[in-house]
Write a structure and sequence with these properties.
The longest helix is centred in the C-terminal third of the chain and has 44 residues. It contains 15 helices and twelve strands. It is an alpha+beta fold and 414 residues long. Helix 11 runs parallel beside helix 14.
Amino acid sequence: MSLFRLTLRNVLHRRFLSLLTVCAVAITVAFIVLLVLSRQSVEQGAKKGYGPFDLVIGAAGSETQLVLNTFYHIGAPTGNIPLTVLDEARQDPSVEAAFAMTTGDNYKGYPIVGIDSGYFFTRYGGSRLQEGKMYTHTGDTIIGSYVAQSLGLKVGDTFAGAHGLVQGEDHESAAAEHEEGHEEEHEAGESGGHAHEDFRYRVAGILPELHTPDDRAVFTTVDYAWAVHGLAPEEREITAVLVKPASLLGAHDLKQAFDGSSGVQAAYTSKAVSEVLNAVDQGSRLLGMLTAICVLLAAIAILLSLVAAASERTKDVGILRLLGKSRAYVWLSLTTEGLLVTTTGLIVGLVIGHLGAYLLKDMLFSQAGIQIEPYHWTPEHGLIVLGALAIGLLSSLGPAFRMYRMHPLALFKS
């Protein structure tokens, strides 16, 4: 009988214990894979979330809140600033490009963002729309690909927005409501008192998949907020100014010029994002401790499984030795069994980890605009594979070495 067939027979002979060991390894590997994919997605999504806009100008308050609301469409804005701030920024020679942004309304929980169309050409290099054309008139919109898919919106559809930023709305039920038509929406607007039913938006175009938070937003002209609320020219304000500096030195000069003047702040985008990532890293360290505990439990499960196997098969091993099988053969049979169980759990764990990432993909993106890549393989995957096999091998060495040292006749007395 070949070594592999003997090992497979031994594993199947103790199905329940082998299954428990496989499950312990699989759960540990799946947890680590999901953690690695999520952490990498958060880091990549955070870094490419703001594009070339290294500076953002907004109302005084939390820099992190300003950046998250401006680029990731998370949370509420810090407030409004005078429209003249945009003119001052554009007149500064150290500014390559500056765009005003207005926010404050939503449609079915997705933020409505007013911004000049030049923003898309500056950030994405003039990416073509998936459908339709860029907005040109007040009330025209282009919508992110995720919004279009979730709500079933098409070019030419019209809708009414609502005041405020709704972060926790169930988007699936919102999509169902859209299918029922605008009559129900009108009734909700009258009863809730928050809908701007008298101002209708029209879908002029749909953005391609950008894999950024812009996929889950509705974009329109900057003046939409003024038109919706009927503001006079002297009352018009903006939420933020997105600035692409001509140089790093220019960004420093701009921050010095605007920061702290008349209730206005200028924030380095990368600095605010780094603070968020640091908070994520602290959470990752806590999860890392839990992962270490899972790895230890998996190693113990493999060790107990092999100790039980060695105790059950002492006489079988004795017969093999009397039939002429070498000590190395006995040693290999037990270590191969540990590696077989570990490899099976490793493969199952990798599949479950990536499947879990696929199932969590939409939820993570809808809540935080982070695009997890469930099919992505990272260098950490190689470490996971090597680590799992090493744990299986090390756990096998103790029982295998014990059987290796015993005399054949002593095996029958055990």
